[in-house]
Inverse folding.
């Protein structure tokens, strides 16, 4: 079936597997079908990057647990994975020369995003541009925002307009912590959204929607960052995700993926673009 819409999904910090988005894709597809839409009209592509940092993190954890008498292994592992991801991903080197090892993780993760868009465009879309919706969880929102910024500031002419994300018609961030990475900046400037080169017919329905569970301590509203963010983020959407056990705790940070209410909200937005 000809695809009418494309969705790019990226995960955030912490341990992830290549199939991290399966529950979300299944849930959204079911909601689309309930509303009378054919879920086959949507092409999905995941951006998996956890394996870039996992070997070094696992090696250290194994050595540390073997040598030192440490408590709370589960919590320590969680914090090391989460904080290690954020600390390893940075754009500017700490030394004097640009492009050194300090920027390697940034570039490798962005290559994954680029490769996913290439796969999406030349695969299921068959070189035909369609509206693109990016869905980013947690730290993935920061990564994707940086990637879009780089593409807008330094367009790669070797890529198609779709691959440069000029067809970005929706940006859905959830459990997002972009505000945490703005405090060291003297001037906080968001990406341009909708993109300047988005086809005019797609502009009226283009939206940046940011979903957060009030019990998710890693999720923050984006519009309060400054007036510039308030201009590009259409809505900070409060939503409760998770079941009776995890839904009212910080563990809700991981509950978006399988939550039916969240899937329904995404499907509702996708329906507006189909």
């Amino acid at each position: 079936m000809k695809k009418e819409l494309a969705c790019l999904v990226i995960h955030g910090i912490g341990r992830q597997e290549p199939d991290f988005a399966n529950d979300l894709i299944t849930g959204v597809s079911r909601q689309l079908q309930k509303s009378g839409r054919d879920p086959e009209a949507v092409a999905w592509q995941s951006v998996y990057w956890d394996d870039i940092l996992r070997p070094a993190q696992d090696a250290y954890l194994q050595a540390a647990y073997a040598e030192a008498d440490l408590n709370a292994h589960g919590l320590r592992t969680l914090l090391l994975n989460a904080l290690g991801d954020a600390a390893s991903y940075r754009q500017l080197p700490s030394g004097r020369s640009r492009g050194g090892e300090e920027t390697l993780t940034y570039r490798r993760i962005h290559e994954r995003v680029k490769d996913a868009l290439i796969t999406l465009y030349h695969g299921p879309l068959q070189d035909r541009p369609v509206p693109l919706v990016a869905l980013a969880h947690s730290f993935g929102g920061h990564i994707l925002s940086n990637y879009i910024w780089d593409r807008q500031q330094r367009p790669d002419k070797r890529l198609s307009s779709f691959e440069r994300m000029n067809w970005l018609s929706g940006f859905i961030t959830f459990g997002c912590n972009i505000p945490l990475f703005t405090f060291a900046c003297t001037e906080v400037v968001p990406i341009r959204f909708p993109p300047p080169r988005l086809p005019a017919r797609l502009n009226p329905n283009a939206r940046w929607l940011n979903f957060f569970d009030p019990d998710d301590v890693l999720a923050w509203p984006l519009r309060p960052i400054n007036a510039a963010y308030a201009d590009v983020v259409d809505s900070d959407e409060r939503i409760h995700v998770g079941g009776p056990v995890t839904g009212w705790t910080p563990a809700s940070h991981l509950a978006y993926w399988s939550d039916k209410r969240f899937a329904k909200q995404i499907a509702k937005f996708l329906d507006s673009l189909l």
Q: What stands out?
A: The two ends are 14 Å apart (CA to CA). The beta strands are 5-10, 42-47, 132-137, 168-174, 207-212, 235-238. The domain at 5-50+103-273 is CATH 3.40.50.1820 (Rossmann fold). The chain has one domain: 5-50+103-273.
